[in-house]
Design goal:
mainly alpha; 73% helix
């Protein structure tokens, strides 16, 4: 009993320390955004601001059109989530229920492509967007992210948990594959599908490299790209930069706090069976 208490205390202590290490950058960002320039550059640095002042946030909103950046990011996130969700559902159903030659081999090859980093595909994607005439457009930010092998893998595993007998019974009763997919499989896999949508929202919201390459005009920038432009246009004043960073990450932090249980549950359900 004594040894178990020591083990649990040590485990919780490590987790608590790890949590502090993970959350400290966010606390420091918020605290720095409330400081004055003199407090930011003080050596050794001060931890707490002398007074709470939102002047840096006012300057950030006046310097860069964060409202427009927010709308652009929201449009991109909704577009990516809707299209990726649709293609992921169809692909996961095909690889989990349909029987066709080379199904497992094709899926294994797709999983192998997960090891290819996005940076290696940037040139190909950029050339495609240019040829389609979608450069400097919101649609150009969405098109390359309309499919995901990782999300297909997670949802396919969730679909494999659904008994095969349900599919056979539905087919005997005359239900088409399309009807069975949307009436049975999707509702039964809703937790995993919700997790995929949440993860995709976070990914598309935080995208930086692709908007940096595709977007030229100010009114079509997303929030992360807008933060970079704000830093270069307004000069590197770290207290103001931290205020802009807080504006960018705050929606995602709120989303994660409310949806963290669904994310963990969905990944656990969809990532076990293969």
């Amino acid at each position: 009993m004594y040894k178990e208490t020591i083990k649990k205390t040590f485990a919780y202590g490590v987790l608590f320390f790890g949590s502090l290490m993970a959350l400290f950058p966010f606390f420091w960002m918020i605290l720095s955004s409330l400081k004055t320039a003199a407090e930011v550059y003080t050596t050794p640095p001060t931890f707490l601001p002398s007074r709470i002042d939102l002047i840096n946030y006012v300057f950030a909103f006046n310097t860069a059109p964060f409202g427009r950046y927010f709308v652009n990011s929201l449009i991109v996130a909704i577009g990516c989530v809707a299209l990726t969700g649709f293609t992921t559902i169809l692909a996961a159903f095909a690889f989990s229920r349909l029987r066709f030659p080379g199904r497992d081999l094709i899926f294994a090859l797709l999983l192998a492509f997960m090891m290819v980093p996005f940076e290696m595909l940037v040139i190909t994607n950029y050339s495609t967007i240019l040829s389609l005439g979608l450069h400097n457009s919101i649609i150009g930010l969405i098109i390359p992210f309309t499919a995901s092998i990782f999300y297909t893998y997670i949802l396919r595993n969730a679909f494999l948990y659904i008994p095969e007998s349900l599919y056979n019974s539905a087919r005997v009763d005359g239900a088409s594959n399309w009807l069975y997919l949307w009436k049975v499989m999707v509702p039964m896999s809703l937790p995993t599908l919700t997790t995929i949508m949440l993860l995709n929202t976070i990914t598309s919201w935080n995208a930086f490299i692709w908007p940096l390459l595709v977007i030229d005009s100010t009114n079509k920038r997303t929030l992360p790209f807008g933060l970079y432009a704000f830093m270069s246009e307004g000069g590197i004043r770290y207290e103001r930069l931290m205020a802009g960073a807080a504006i960018v990450v705050l929606p995602i932090i709120i989303l994660f706090l409310f949806a963290r249980r669904k994310i963990l549950t969905g990944v656990a359900q969809g990532g076990v069976k293969g």
